[in-house]
Amino acid sequence: MAFNWSEFYTEQGGRGVRPTFTAGLEAWADTTGTSAPGDAVDLGCGDGVETRQLAEQGWHVLAIDSDPDVEKRVRAEVGDALASRVDVRRASFETLGDLPESDFIYAGFALPFCDPGHFPYLWADIRDALRPGAVFAGELFGPDDEWFGRAGMNFHDRAGVEAMLAGLDVVQLVEDNHRGMSFEGPKHWHVFHVVARA
């Protein structure tokens, strides 16, 4: 089943930044001893809420999403005053190519929507883009998730997630396995909330 991302982002309007994003920025501050901004990538930036938060704090942000309306949506969220700090790129994970070296890479509920055959390459690109001391924050889905087996999505058990994080300093690895709501209605979620430092 294909997701209507434009509809999803419209329905999400007005949400706050996600907790894993906040935890990632806290890990960055712990790394540097300050909250001094650097270069960030917002993968699957969607409505641009986290992109705007980064830009407001002085980060230079590359915001990436496959949604056809991503540029219009993110520019509207960010506003003219912060526009010079944000570059927007429309691309799918499967066609993304190399990522720039970064201090913070955020992928909030985005990575599971990469085709499983391409996901190892995407993850390798993310790791390669992390500068020493840089932080990754984002979510991965587990095999108990109700969407397990959907075409074009990837899923990982805890051992697989831990293997993916080998060599990184794992700041947070929270496994969430519960019934809740999604934009499609009630759903069983199996999510790993990850914050890790290079």
In a nutshell, what does this entry contain?
The protein has six helices and seven strands, in the order ααβαβαββαβαββ. It is an alpha/beta fold.
* Helix count, DSSP H or I runs of 4 or more residues: 6
Global morphology: globular
CATH architecture: 3-Layer(aba) Sandwich
Mean pLDDT: 92
The counted number of beta strands is 7
CATH topology: Rossmann fold
| Class based on secondary structure composition and strand pairing | alpha/beta
Low-confidence stretches: none
Largest beta-sheet details: 7 strands, mixed
**Strand order in the largest sheet:** 3-2-1-4-5-7-6
Number of domains: 1
Estimate percent helicity. Answer: 25-40%
Regarding CATH, which class?
Alpha Beta
Query: Which superfamily, in CATH terms, is the homologous superfamily?
Result: Vaccinia Virus protein VP39
Your description of this structure?
The protein has helices at residues 5-11, 19-32, 49-56, 70-78, 119-129, 158-164; strands at 39-43, 60-65, 86-90, 102-107, 130-141, 169-182, 185-197. With 198 residues, the protein is of the alpha/beta class. Strands 3-2-1-4-5-7-6 form a 7-stranded mixed beta sheet. Helix 4 (70-78) links the parallel strand 2 (60-65) and strand 3.
Task: Chart the SSEs and their pairings.
Elements: H1 5-11, H2 19-32, E1 39-43, H3 49-56, E2 60-65, H4 70-78, E3 86-90, E4 102-107, H5 119-129, E5 130-141, H6 158-164, E6 169-182, E7 185-197
Parallel strand pairs: 1-2, 1-4, 2-3, 4-5
Antiparallel strand pairs: 5-7, 6-7
